[in-house]
Specification:
With 391 residues, the protein is α+β, with helices and mostly antiparallel strands. The chain has 5 helices and 17 strands. It has helices at residues 2-6, 9-14, 50-80, 130-190, 198-258, and strands at 17-19, 25-27, 84-86, 90-94, 97-100, 105-110, 117-118, 123-127, 261-263, 268-271, 280-281, 286-291, 295-302, 314-319, 322-334, 360-367, 384-389.
């Protein structure tokens, strides 16, 4: 039977077992295979090409993984690296308005502190105004006196014009008297000399000469009166000029009085306050600075990075102080010339040994979201990292 055959000593020997004296079979050492040189142990009776198949499978999986990594790296490069140009040589820029007094005086009140937010028109400090109030009162008094003088000059003009009218009337009367005397003399001359006495004829001649002289005198007085009118009118013009000068002094005194209050020219933050209450200040002396919240970025790109850079391209800016906050902006302009050309000591490339150095060109980047709504303490000089999308 088949069962007896399987338990026979020949069958047990074929399968690598031998009897142990108790009717059972034990495995002989000759049935063990040596280990695989690659470290893999194959079970007894496995096909000879199984190890080769596993090796090929591992190589294929490794190649596929490497291809996937290469594709991912290439996609990342062409999407997030190649289209951008960036630099760490970039800083926040902004206007800094030095505040100074326009008149000398002692600081009576100091109304702001360091880093205080102010609005346009807010009073920063007050200078003792008493001297300027006195000057304004004196200027107004001078103006009143000048206006009184112009009224007096106008009255003199009116009086001179009245004298002219009177002198012209005298001329008319003298002309009439001269005409009468001349007519009387003609009548005496037209009659026979025996009909008129010598004394009467001489009297007529004398009256004619007197009337003519009176006429000339009246005409001279009329001319003098007209000249006096011109003179008084010139006095009116002089008084008018004095009034204008007095008005100018009043306006200057009012300006000086207004200058005793130093106000903020626009919205911003007070910085570098160096004045204290009670200090005596001079015109032009810097007291503090106002920094408006109008910021932009000056990025010094290498000249080799400007190949595809144009005005209007979008920019993403990260401020070193706030790495988690990203500002949006755009390229406004590119400077016409490298920064070294406008330095205090520009390079002289025509002298000595020449070594080519990649130049830096300032690029102005305007921030689109740098207003007060951000709540961040931005300021000129802070370091940033801009990234311009050029493709």
């Amino acid at each position: 039977m088949n069962t007896n055959r399987n338990n026979s000593p020949e069958a047990i020997a074929e399968n690598g077992f031998e009897p142990n004296g108790h009717g059972t079979a034990t495995e002989t050492p000759t049935t063990l295979r040596p280990p695989n040189p690659n470290g893999d142990e194959s079970p007894a009776g496995s096909p000879p090409n199984l190890d080769t198949t596993k090796k090929c499978r591992r190589k294929i999986l490794g190649a596929v993984a490497a291809l996937i990594v290469a594709l991912a790296a290439g996609d990342y490069y062409f999407r997030f690296v190649a289209p951008y140009e960036s630099t760490d040589d970039a800083f926040v820029e902004g206007y800094v308005i030095p505040m100074a007094s326009q008149v000398p005086g002692r600081v009576a009140e100091l109304l702001v502190t360091d880093n205080q937010q102010v609005k346009a028109g807010d009073v920063l400090l007050k200078i003792d105004p008493r001297d300027y109030e006195t000057s304004l009162a004196q200027a107004r008094a001078d103006l009143a006196a000048a206006r009184s003088q112009i009224n007096q000059a106008q009255a003199q003009v009116n009086a001179s014009q009245a004298k002219v009218a009177q002198a012209r009337a005298s001329v008319i009367a003298a002309e009439a008297e001269n005409q009468r005397a001349a007519d009387d003399l003609k009548r005496y001359q037209s009659v026979d000399s025996t009909a008129v006495s010598k004394s009467a004829f001489d009297a007529a001649q004398s009256q004619a000469r007197t009337a003519s002289a009176n006429l000339e005198a009246a005409r001279s007085q009329a001319k003098a009166a007209e000249a006096d009118v011109t003179l008084t009118q010139a006095g009116v013009e002089t008084a008018s000029a004095a009034v204008q000068q007095a008005e100018a002094r009043v306006r200057q005194a009012e300006l000086n009085l207004s200058y005793t209050q130093v106000t903020a020219p626009e919205n911003g933050r007070v910085t570098r306050r160096v004045v204290e209450q009670g200090a005596y200040i001079q015109p032009g002396q810097t007291l503090m600075a106002i920094v408006p919240r109008q910021y932009w970025v000056i990025a010094n790109f290498k000249e080799t990075q400007l190949t595809h850079m144009r005005a209007g391209q979008p920019v993403e800016v990260v401020v070193d102080a706030y790495p988690e906050h990203k500002f949006k902006g755009h390229v406004e302009s590119i400077q016409s010339g490298a920064g070294a050309r406008f330095s205090l000591f520009p390079p002289e490339n025509a002298t000595g040994n020449y070594i080519k150095v990649v130049q830096r060109v300032p690029v102005k980047i305007v921030l689109d979201n740098s207003g007060p709504d951000t709540g961040l303490a931005l300021g000129p000089g802070m370091s940033v990292d801009p990234k311009v999308r050029v493709k």
